[in-house]
Design a protein that fits this description.
Elements (H helix, E strand, L loop, with lengths): L10 H9 L2 H12 L5 H8 L3 H13 L3 E8 L2 E8 L1 H4 L2 H14 L6 E4 L4 E2 L2 E5 L12 E5 L31 H7 L3 H10 L5 H8 L3 H14 L15 H4 L2 H14 L8 E5 L8 E5 L11 E4 L1
The structure holds zinc ion (2 copies).
One zinc ion binds next to loops.
């Protein structure tokens, strides 16, 4: 057994650490949809402080999501930030989050147009191997690899959840429910464990290496936003329909994490499409024409 300080964090834990932050997600959405690349533009769009923005951009460069590219600005050279190939692959994740919000919270907001068929559409999760759609959580099985600590992400962070800054409320921002699930590093890990069948408080605790008070707080928030049922008298926390509907986001996050954070084939978690038996390669398909919704084939009408 390698000692704890030598063992690398798991790919999924690493991804949650990178993405489990509300500002990071909001910075990414604007980079995708508005093609925002400059410090001052994000600052003005998001209304966050320069110091907060600077820290996030620095972390995102370190995490390989953004790269600095110099440009000329009135005789001065400044840096702008471009999405890296690994960040561009997050398009599907953002699209899946948007779809969950529409299904579960409010179907107003931006309209997604598929340029290939010209229709307004919604993404549907499909299996990249056999092409079946839709694929739901119930159509899959999850196999845990030897690396049982897949979601261990117990790394201290400076920005803590308690510090709630108001996020903007324009059409490109997320709903509070979404931020309860994705806006900090622990919440998506808890939801991931729930998808893998963890039900009891103590099992979440030992599975994730999470402090009791933090876990209690997050489960309470999950119950409040309706993704987890209030605990049964056996003390089990089960996903609601609204929670189960989050599966495409989970599947895409796992796929992205394993693609970009590990070179070797060691998989800590394999999500399998039961019908065809293949490892699930999540793809988002147009609900109208059935073709894949690639980043260059869609746009949002804001
Ligand atoms: Zn399949
Ligand atoms: Zn289409």
């Amino acid at each position: 057994m390698p000692s704890a300080h030598l063992s690398p964090r798991s790919a999924i834990g690493e991804a949650l650490l990178t993405l489990g932050d509300r500002w990071t997600l909001l910075i990414l959405v604007r980079a995708f949809v508005l093609r925002t690349r400059r410090f001052g533009d994000w600052r003005d769009q998001l209304g966050l402080s320069e110091s907060t923005l600077a820290v996030r951009l620095r972390d995102m460069v370190a995490a390989g999501l953004l790269e600095r590219v110099p440009y000329e600005d009135g005789g001065r050279t400044r840096d702008e930030y471009r999405l890296t190939p690994r960040a561009l692959e997050l398009w599907n994740l953002l699209l899946a989050i948007w779809r969950w919000e529409q299904m579960s919270i409010d179907d107003g907001g931006p309209v997604l147009i598929h340029d290939r068929c010209g229709r307004s559409t919604h993404p549907v999760l499909g299996c990249g191997a056999c092409g079946e759609k839709p694929v739901t959580a119930r159509d899959t099985t999850a196999e845990r690899g030897a690396r049982a600590e897949f979601a261990r992400i117990a790394v201290p962070r400076l920005h803590r959840r308690a510090k709630e800054l108001p996020t903007p409320t324009d059409p490109l921002s997320y709903y509070p429910e979404t931020m309860e699930i994705l806006g900090d590093r622990w919440s998506p890990a808890i939801l991931a464990a729930a998808f893998l069948g963890v039900r009891r408080f103590n099992d979440f605790k030992s599975e994730l290496g999470i402090a009791q008070s933090v876990l209690a707080d997050r489960l309470r928030r999950f119950v409040a936003v309706g993704v987890v049922h209030a605990p049964s008298h056996e003390g089990e926390y089960r996903l609601t329909h609204k929670g189960m509907d989050f599966f495409p986001v989970f599947a895409i996050l796992v796929d992205w994490a394993q693609t970009w954070h590990h070179d070797d084939a060691t998989r800590e978690l394999t999500i399998r499409h039961t019908a065809c038996g293949s490892r699930l390669e999540p793809v988002l398909l147009c609900e109208v024409c059935g073709e894949e919704l690639t980043r260059s084939s869609v746009h949002f009408n804001l």
